[in-house]
Amino acid sequence: MSDEEWERFLRESVTGADGAPVEPSARAREVERRLRERSGQPEGWRTYSPARPRRRTGWYVTGLVAFIVLLVVGLFPQQVVGWFDGNDGGGYGAPLAAESERPRGAPGAEQDLRPTLAEPFRGSPAARWADGAAGITVPPAKATGWMDAAQVEKALRQSRDFLVAAGLDPRTLRGERPTKAIGLLNPHQKDVQEYLRTALSSTAPAPGDDPLLLFSRFRPEHARPAGDLVKTRGRLTYREGKRGAVEVTADVTFVYPVAPAGDGGPDAQVVRTIVRREVVMSWDDPAEVITEPGTMSLVSYALDMTNGGCSAPTGYFVPPFGTVDKQFAGGGHQVDPYDRSKPIDTSNGTTPTGNDCATATRS
Predict the structure, then answer these.
(1) In whole angstroms, what separates CA 262 from the centre of its chain?
(2) Is 268 exposed, middle or buried (0-12, 13-18, 19+ CB in 10 A)?
(3) How far is residue 274's CA from residue 269's CA, in Å, rounded to a whole number?
């Protein structure tokens, strides 16, 4: 190699020869790789492609379903209730909360379904009521009048015991002497003791001496219970009464499903006798009133009754078997036996047969 060629070789080793291939940098190789992986026209770094709008199909479907549901409820409200009550539309649903104050109106309408031995409260608002004593709300106790809180609590408990003995005890319902209930009454209250003697001994009591004013009774040869349950709804309230007494007021509705006495088979007619009672009881201060421990005096008592008989008092409820449809024939004064929004009308004094033969709007 000549000196000129050697000198040129050394120079091109440093500066590179003209037209020699150039090795791309790492950044250039990465850009080239990304371009090869992407299909279509490469997007410029300053360009912008707006996102495609999402189709909100779910909202339209939800709105359509809601519209259909509202339409069905508006056109067929009773049938919709029946779908959810779990008993062929018999009005059964979630139990009602305890009654703590007077309701503002009557319960809502139920399907017009006849009660049966298997479902004696079918088609009745009472289907959602509590059973027996559980339906009688007892308020919290606080010191009142001559009693401290513990004594008031006991008085409230015994007041409910009286209602249970007078309106739920099976022996009382069979027409036997209501011994437990009588044992809670002040034996020194002469007018009440006279009423008890007359009412429980007469076969044809006068309206003011009817034992039904205080006690629920059926003749076993005429009616038998349709099942083991009596539905109740009501409450106790209390205040300070005369001479420092603790005055307890009970307002309770009892629903008695009964069938004709005898076998009758599974298709026997069931009638619901509905009884609402308002009883005012005075737990007197023994320093002010002659009384016995654990007893109270009666201040007043009133009765509202449906399907219990429209004839002269007999001392027993007389369910209208075979003629129950006539109770709803219309005409005359109409009453809703489940409406607890107003006090019992006592404008005519103590009422042994409530609204007597007024037409009941439902049972």
Answers:
(1) 33
(2) middle
(3) 16
